[in-house]
Description:
The protein is an alpha+beta fold.
Amino acid sequence: MDKNQSLHAYIKDELLTRIKSDEYKRGEKFPTELELCKAFNVSRTTVRTALTQLTLEGYLVRHQGRGTFVADKKVRQTLSNTVQRYSDQVEVQGKKPEITLISINVVPASETLKQSLPVNVNDPIQRVERVRKANGEPTQYEIAYIPWNIAPGITQAQAETSLYAALKDEFEIHIAKTTEHIEITLADEQLCSHLQCEPGLPCFYIETIAEDESGKKVEYSRSYFRGDKTNFMIERNYPLGEK
């Protein structure tokens, strides 16, 4: 558990991982509060807080008199393509962009990262933690993971400008495709400390997997955007003749 993470946030993340990995399948009855209290050795209040957040975020559904069930998977929408960097998008709106590096660490790959990147468990991965700001106000908190054998030794200067530009200019890796999943989440204590917001603030949560021209996955990231500070534009092109 992250030392800055509350107990209920840890339990929520653990349960969410199990839901996303289909350990708890959609439509299946979820363990009761008492069962989870025994499994995690925590109080009922802690478990209830985690379950409430998962319900508000659409991962669980409660049926009166029947219990709690795993909700159907969310509908996925594809965002439009853009080659503009964060700084370019902010500057064109008349705001001053800023990227602040929180930390760069080399960590062992977990089972979760193995599912998203071409690594084995315990392989070295660079964990890059950053906050993006516009006019001095935090708008995005991001954790990016890049395998060491793909781009060893990412520096602070590279992390505080553009990781994708660094991959291209310093490591000759061109990002040719990204796959992004977007959801809504609520800010917990840890997220609030980075985004300088109140607990419970709705945030956009985006998971991204970046691939090079050969289709090799080179980066996996998790980003949280303040819902009161950001919005997204979706632009679709419809070729002539298609219905």
